[in-house]
Amino acid sequence: MKELLIIIPAYNEEKSIERVVGHVIEDYPEYDYVVVNDGSKDDTSKICRANNFNLIDLPVNLGLAGAFQTGLKYAYKQGYKYAIQYDADGQHKVEYIEKMLNEMKKGYDIVIGSRFIESKKPHSMRMLGSRIISTAIWLTTGKKVKDPTSGMRMLNRSMLKEFALNLNYGPEPDTISYLLREGVRLSEVQVEMDERLEGESYLNMVRSVKYMVHMVVSILVIQNFRKRDSRYVKDNNKERMGNV
User: Fold this and answer.
1) How far apart are CA 93 and CA 191, in angstroms?
2) What does pTM read for this prediction?
């Protein structure tokens, strides 16, 4: 069984994709990767093909959840033990993957690359939203997640299957909250992240506020009505027993 796949969802990242993927290939060849081009309207796909990057080219834009799930389906079918979500904009640092992988091997289902284990959150509107989401998760699960909006998340084999085959799972804090309530084991490790150098973030001020409100309502209300497929729970238990 293959060990780890780096999943790189990309939407209109023509200015950064060659640098980001090239860094992974040249400096960390021990890791496999796949770029999931999410129906980009710019030259993201063209650049990936010109560089012979391992590429899944979606014909339409599915959004982050759809692109990430596509990568997870690929990882699951290709037999990987673990997979990690890795931003195409250059904010994530590949050198922290080994640290996250070592933490994962202690028996966790999900490991989050967190900016705020050893560092305090800055005082900004965006970090205020992160604090509110963290509080909502704590109120509903009793667990403290210091960086719930971090996109650098690693999943084990059982989670790969659950995310890949369940249409209701997106890579968002409300799903993390739901899974914590269901007994999934989660850990965070300290990482550092760079600022975006090129391109523009989807989350402007208005969208950030809408996102925060949506996540809080989902965590506090909607997740109470979700039901987890018993097949995944059984598979997860078998996975844990096999790692003992």
Assistant:
1) 8
2) 0.89
